[in-house]
Amino acid sequence: MTKIALITGANKGIGFEIARLLAEQGVTAIIGARDEERGRAAGERLGLPHVRIDVTDEAVVAAAAKWVGQEYGRLDILVNNAGIAGSLDATVPSATPARALREIYETNVFGVVTVTNAMLPLLRASEAGRIVNMSSELGSLTLAMDRSTPYWDANYITYNSSKSALNMVTVSYAKELIDTPIKVNAANPGYCATDLNAHTGFRTAEQGAAIAVRLATLGADGPTGAYLEDDGDIPW
Ligand SMILES: NC(=O)c1ccc[n+]([C@@H]2O[C@H](COP(=O)([O-])OP(=O)(O)OC[C@H]3O[C@@H](n4cnc5c(N)ncnc54)[C@H](OP(=O)(O)O)[C@@H]3O)[C@@H](O)[C@H]2O)c1
């Protein structure tokens, strides 16, 4: 049976590549995009369906879930990929207003919870649901405190703490769903050249997509509640 996947923020960047690579494996990968036209254009490029989904808008997310249910009756894979970085100017935490965190969290944390809750009934209707949350190595508390790594200096309280929170969100859902076939994992794509970082990354979006695709297609013996990159676990 053809698997059905929804990837949020799939009109460009890593999400687009996740959709493309899943489609190569025969998955019906639905392009989630907050902008109808950008979603349609990406869907047409890949020959894939698209749905409008702004992860910060509960009504729009609910409408997207309703559409997926009506169209496919279930969801096998949810990739919570949509994310924003905001300004990564080296603003010290003490000079960063709480509203800057709130803005990032709306998309990177609360958006994931909104989408996951809306899609869970459809994932439960799958024989083997998979949820992949696009985290970042910048969310690792262990790496952040390691002076020998570049993460020591990358002290972005807004983005980094949103991804640390997302890691705990991942673990929380994995625990709730531990006795179901649904697996929930966090992926680190590495530093990829996309619009998110003005294309300063040294990996391609396709390389970044690979770990998400792996976690989206895990077998029954795969992990849940894990934080993974290409080379294996990364420290929380
Ligand atoms: N690039 C990296 O080096 C890197 C490293 C670690 C983790 N990540 C994570 O990987 C994910 C993808 O990032 P990327 O590098 O591919 O960034 P990107 O090229 O900027 O793409 C981000 C995508 O998210 C969408 N998006 C933003 N806010 C949204 C919202 N409220 N609702 C729905 N979609 C929304 C964007 O839509 P629009 O086109 O409409 O703006 C776009 O499709 C993010 O979660 C990011 O934090 C990236």
Automatic annotation (TrEMBL):
CDD domains: carb_red_PTCR-like_SDR_c (cd05324). Transmembrane segments: none annotated. InterPro entries: CBR1-like, NAD(P)-bd_dom_sf, Sc_DH/Rdtase_CS, SDR_fam. GO terms for molecular function: oxidoreductase activity, acting on the CH-OH group of donors, NAD or NADP as acceptor. Keywords: NADP, Oxidoreductase. Pfam families: adh_short. PANTHER family: (+)-NEOMENTHOL DEHYDROGENASE (PTHR43490), SHORT-CHAIN DEHYDROGENASE_REDUCTASE (PTHR43490:SF99). Belongs to the short-chain dehydrogenases/reductases (SDR) family. This is SDR family oxidoreductase. It comes from Nonomuraea zeae. The lineage of its organism: Bacteria, Bacillati, Actinomycetota, Actinomycetes, Streptosporangiales.
